[in-house]
Please model this.
Amino acid sequence: QVQLVESGGDLVQAGGSLRLSCSASGTLFSAKTMGWYRQAPGKQRELVAVVGNEDFINYGDFVKGRFTISRLHTNNTLYLQMNSLEPEDTGAYYCNAQFIVGPVGEFWGQGTQVTVYS
Model:
């Protein structure tokens, strides 16, 4: 069973930066895709950014160049550098990984809270 553990969430003032990390355990295989999603209270979970094995990257429209996703394929470690944070970025941020070999399936972390105050 794959386990994803996020870290790096915090309380930060608008305009500040945070770096989220996600570490996967329980497999020696490289995930097909890894990504970050977020969910604000009362809203649906939405894509923040995703990166694939061939290093294709896709960002949510709201990112607008403020966030950068990166990944270490060797150990399925994922990062999200977030700059110019806005109060609208407040929410729980979840790590996601999809595997097509080994533990086939989609896995989620427990989430890390990001709170941006003005």
Q: What stands out?
A: The longest strand covers residues 91-99. The chain has a mean pLDDT of 94. The chain has no helices and eleven strands. The two ends are 40 Å apart (CA to CA).
